[in-house]
Design a protein that fits this description.
This protein is α+β, with helices and mostly antiparallel strands and about 525 residues long. The protein contains 8 helices and 32 strands.
Length: about 525
């Protein structure tokens, strides 16, 4: 009879896995097929099952085989994975490093600013048992519930993995490296105990979780949960390709847990802040976040860094800050986040700098502090209004994945003071985004819409084909608040290497800070 299917961390079928079924002194064997299917000549009941295949971490599980319900077995590939849990902490609080490695590794802590700063080493991580630093995957759809690493067998009183968060706020990275040179890095957001700077920077952590496919799904495929059979060929098996442009849920997708590794957040060991970012999606994860933070430190702007969950759960005291900066790609926001920031801007004189693209384009709900429920893109039924009401611009698909510089439209505005830029001049000629090269107006682009405030000022426009470039805008509110919008996912990725975008951003930050003092 068929017992179930076996898949890896991406929910891809794994063929050739050796299974041993044991009970009452009996032992039976089976091998998984190309589809990941496992057939065995066994009777229903309780079995101890061992799974093994070269290149994967072996494990034992206790299961009840019914003969009618198929079991999902999950095996983890033998490569370095890691994440901090929680992924964000206050100074002085602790997080655990959760690392999967079949070999001993050295673990070091770094802070990522304009330069990488070595903080300390935690030495070599290993245990007496062979392969004891390897983790296991739960045999379920753990994208919904988390991977539960550092749990099975982690009972020794003095073998815990907790690390206290440093005093200084910022983007930290853990570097894990084995003796033979295998390397993995993973981010850790550290916020201050109490506000210290006048600028708060919000990392796009909800969006990164929505995009994270570790476990075999994200909010872009298998949104409604893992299918019954693991993937053999994505183009044949995933509804994203077989039923394109169709949302497989009516209201919310299946839960997505933050408690998973984010491979796209890995920064190469020798990478520098001014290097281009390789890959399809890495630019909207922590490697992209780093570029803005590094630029701010180069320009001597002090900041406090927060995750988006801090804003949702009222752990970011907006009233203590003069400026809130949205980095990169804040696509997924809860209605509570939107209401808080809009009230701060419209009623309390807050200054918002939106330095990304395609923000607030999809709504989320929180199932708990570790799990989100994504809703459909382009809809805002919970908050009840377009993002342009707050940001001044809104995303459209025109210009998608193109790249180009901006053209100055309003050189008399103070944002261009001292830049040497005049009307019709181009700026933002380059960015660090390898996926969509061509300039700072790139990848996903926002434009002025009918929902934009009437007093929005159009400063510049991207020169992307078909007049689809990003709109650079600013507007003020009666309370003294103001919103500056770059309208492009690649604006911050241009800052470290482009004089024009750098000078304009510096002008706006300085004006926003001066106006509040």
């Amino acid at each position: 009879m068929q017992v179930g299917y076996v898949s890896d961390e991406d929910y891809v079928a794994v063929a050739g896995v050796d299974f041993e079924f044991e009970r009452d002194g009996a032992s039976l064997t089976a091998t998984s097929r190309a589809s990941g299917a496992v057939y065995a000549d066994i009777e229903p009941g309780d079995w101890q099952i061992s799974l093994s295949k070269p290149g994967y971490t072996a494990k034992r599980v206790e299961v009840h085989v019914t003969g009618s319900e198929l079991i999902s077995f999950r095996l983890l590939f033998d490569r370095l994975y890691g994440f901090m849990w929680p992924k964000w902490s206050r100074s002085g609080e602790t997080s655990e490093y959760c690392v999967h490695s079949t070999k001993e590794f050295r673990l070091d802590l770094w802070r990522y600013g304009w330069e990488k700063e070595f903080i300390r080493s935690f030495g070599w991580c290993d245990e007496h048992g062979p392969g004891a630093m390897a983790q296991m995957l739960p045999d379920r759809d753990f994208t919904q519930t988390g991977v539960d690493w550092n749990r099975t067998g982690y009972n020794l009183q003095y073998q815990k993995h907790s690390i206290p968060a440093p005093e200084r706020s910022g983007l930290y990275y853990l570097h894990a490296k084995t003796r033979d040179g295998e390397f993995c890095s993973f981010p850790w957001i550290v916020s201050p105990r109490e506000p210290e700077a006048k600028i708060a920077v919000l990392a796009s952590t909800i969006t990164q979780n929505a995009y994270n496919r570790f476990g075999g799904r994200s909010n872009y495929f298998n949104q409604d949960g893992l299918p019954d059979r693991p993937i053999v060929n994505s183009r044949q098996d995933l509804k994203r390709y077989t039923q394109p442009d169709t949302w497989p849920f009516e209201q919310t997708a299946a839960p997505l847990s933050f408690q998973r590794p984010e491979p796209a957040s890995c920064v190469p060991e020798d990478a520098q802040v001014s290097d281009t970012i390789a890959g399809r999606i890495e630019s909207v994860f922590a490697p992209g976040e780093w570029r803005l933070l590094g630029w701010m430190e180069r320009e001597a702007f002090d900041y406090d860094l927060y995750s988006e969950t801090d804003l949702h759960f009222d752990d970011l005291p907006l009233e203590a800050y003069d400026v809130l900066v949205l980095n990169l790609h804040s696509e997924y926001w809860s209605p509570q986040m939107y209401s808080r920031v809009k009230k701060w801007v419209y009623e309390q004189g807050g200054r918002l700098m939106y330095l990304g693209g395609c923000a607030l384009y999809a709504e989320v709900e929180f199932q708990d502090d570790a799990t989100i429920l994504c809703r459909r893109e382009g809809e805002y039924s919970l908050r009840g209004e377009s993002e342009a009401k707050l940001l001044g611009v809104a995303y459209t698909h025109s210009g998608f994945q193109t790249g180009a510089p901006y053209r100055v439209l309003n050189d008399g505005h103070w944002a261009f003071a001292g830049t040497g830029l005049n009307n019709e001049d181009l700026f933002g000629m380059r960015s660090l985004h390898e996926r969509c090269p061509g300039g700072a107006s790139a990848h996903e682009l926002d434009k002025i819409s009918s929902d934009s405030p009437e007093n929005v000022v159009h400063l510049a426009k991207g020169t992307n084909p078909d007049a689809a470039g990003a709109d650079l805008t600013i507007y003020e509110t009666p309370s003294g608040g103001s919103v500056f919008a770059a309208g492009s996912l690649c604006w911050t990725l241009s800052l470290p290497i482009d004089d024009g975008t750098s000078a304009i951003t510096r002008n706006v930050l300085c004006r926003f800070l001066e106006s509040k003092t």
